[in-house]
Amino acid sequence: MAMDNWIRSLPKVDLHVHLEGTIEPETLLYLAEKNKVVLPWTTVEAVQQAYAFQDLADFLQIYHQCTQVLRNAEDFYYITLQYIRRSAAENTFHSDVFIDPQTHRDKGIHLEAMMDGITAALREGARQYDYSMGFILCFLRHRPQREALEILHSLGPTRAHFSAIGLAAKELGYPPHLFIDVYKTAHAMGLYCTAHAGEEGPASYVRSALFDLKVHRIDHGNAIVDDPTLIDYVRSQSIPLTMCPLSNRALHIVDDLSQHPATALLNDGVCVTINSDDPAFFGGYMTENLSAMVEHAQWSKNEIAKVLHHAIDHALMPDHRKQSLRHRLTQAL
Ligand code: ADE
Ligand code: ZN
């Protein structure tokens, strides 16, 4: 479709992507074999068939199995460079990436080693493709706050890699206020703060993220449509929502993208952005997510332009680079 090619050609920024969510099935099988990790699948077709998720919990269980194939710094280098190459091929020039230290620490991989591999790939990506990343230190909400605090306090020199903290994984039953001390600490450390909220959880979880954790950004935020006072608040404070249409459809957060709340919120003046979440699991990267809104929610060039500008405005990126990407986007539009 002509519109897909146009979207692919535009300079784009992804504000919500989990590094492990970029491992394509071929890479998953390659790393499993290399590292002698036994997976329930041996072919790409079997992996793809397994990626039919009932809900967030079902997805997270499979996702966790997949993360087990990552064993050392080289593996992180490999998946990061693959992700950058794919992004560059669709003119995505920057991503804010969630990094989950707890998942890998359980296997004995330290955050320093992970970041060595990831940043080596990023240096290569910056050189070859003018690509950049912001890193979000992401905590798992089903794990105790104490563990997250301990990681924050023991970052040492690794602190320099991170611009932000985040909160992800199973949402229902783990409201944001359980992490008040983590966010207080992060604010005091000068970190930008975001949290997944209102993906499967209710609007009250979005409220708690905004007022208990004082986040600068909300990841997903779909449930905000149930609370008009929160919509007014995020609009007046220009708090961005990093929404992920293909993810929401794959996890049955929405039945149909024609009903996706991004459309009404964007029309209402909310700072909506469109992002990929776990692109290798949910059927696409930035181009596919944006194209899906064109196809199913009748988005025009006007909506696409708005969300792309929002993403640049709120990226974890120096101002001079924002200026340069804004200029490129304006030219391309
Ligand atoms: N971790 C990876 N993807 C996620 C999602 N969509 N929601 C919560 N945690 C996640
Ligand atoms: Zn996410």
Structural commentary:
The protein has helices at residues 2-9, 25-34, 44-50, 56-67, 73-89, 101-105, 111-129, 145-153, 180-188, 203-211, 228-236, 245-250, 261-267, 279-282, 286-297, 301-314, 319-332, and strands spanning 12-18, 92-99, 132-140, 164-168, 192-197, 217-220, 241-243, 272-274. The protein is α/β, with parallel strands linked by helices and 333 residues long. It has an eight-stranded parallel sheet with strand order 1-2-3-4-5-6-7-8. Helix 1 (2-9) packs antiparallel against helix 15 and helix 16 runs antiparallel to helix 17 (319-332). The radius of gyration is 19 Å and the shape is globular. The two termini are 17 Å apart. The model has no long low-confidence stretch (mean pLDDT 98). Zinc ion (ZN) is lined by residues 16, 18, 168, 196, 219, 277.
Find the CATH topology: TIM Barrel
- CATH architecture designation: Alpha-Beta Barrel
Q: How many helices in DSSP terms?
A: 17
Count up the domains.
Answer: 1
> Which radius of gyration do the C-alpha atoms yield?
19 Å
> Uncertain spans, ≥5 residues at pLDDT below 50?
none
- CATH top level assignment: Alpha Beta
Features:
333 residues; alpha/beta; 8-stranded parallel sheet; 8 strands; 51% helix; binds zinc ion
Short overview:
The chain has 333 residues and is of the alpha/beta class. The chain has helices spanning 2-9, 25-34, 44-50, 56-67, 73-89, 101-105, 111-129, 145-153, 180-188, 203-211, 228-236, 245-250, 261-267, 279-282, 286-297, 301-314, 319-332; strands spanning 12-18, 92-99, 132-140, 164-168, 192-197, 217-220, 241-243, 272-274.
